Amino acid sequence: MIKIEDLHKSYVMGSNSLHVLKGIDFNVKEGELVSIMGSSGSGKSTLLNILGMLDEADEGSYVLDGVPIKNLNEKVAAQYRNKFLGFIFQSFNLINYKNAVDNVAMPLYYQGIKRKERMDKAMHYLEKVGLAQWATHLPSELSGGQKQRVAIARALASDPKVLLADEPTGALDTKTSYEVMELIQGINDEGKTILVVTHEPDIAEMTKRIVNLKDGRIIDDTVVKQVIAKSYV
What we know:
The protein is α/β, with parallel strands linked by helices. The protein has one domain (2-231): Rossmann fold (3-Layer(aba) Sandwich). It is 33% helix and 28% strand. The protein has helices at 44-51, 74-84, 100-110, 115-128, 144-157, 174-189, 201-204, and strands at 2-13, 16-28, 33-37, 59-64, 67-68, 85-89, 162-166, 193-197, 209-214, 217-223. It has a 6-stranded mixed β-sheet, sandwiched between helices. A 4-stranded antiparallel β-sheet has the order 2-1-4-5, with helices on one face. Strand 7 (162-166), helix 6 and strand 8 form a beta-alpha-beta unit. The longest helix has 16 residues, at 174-189. The radius of gyration is 18 Å and the shape is globular. The two termini are 32 Å apart. The mean pLDDT is 93.
């Protein structure tokens, strides 16, 4: 599903150049649940931005579901993001003046899907995350855990090939974090490929493979015995 070879990325800072990714080789098969860990400055955010087509590598190759991702203009990159990827963010990134069901329907609007079908699909995914009865509530009327569930429903709405979750539990308390991870595990069990960037070891243990980055290199890539989230709740 994801094939990355010899990926390099540098940023120019004044007269200096900061080499952030130093030859990353990284493959993800369809249906995997992988966590990417690393301290601040390890390169995990840069790697996630490249995976999400929000940034582009200087060297190396990135192939997503058989499609080479290189030299895309912003319009094509946006089309690919909408087709291939669903994003889950630490800060939820919900639109404050739109209710839950309208937030979930947003990716479908950009795909040109008619309103009735958008609303039907959005309600289906709200039901999936257990929030159908909150469909008409604004984000300000929802708890942190409920906001993240809406964000997960939105990420799923366009049926992406891969979910990219950037610190999805970073703004949540422990109990709510585990509830969100239980939901993510359930989605993965249905066959969805999911990458989770996290700095929390207990969250990483709830995935099936842990990739550790340090100073722009992968120092460890291990298949682990998955901890089932609900055993914590």
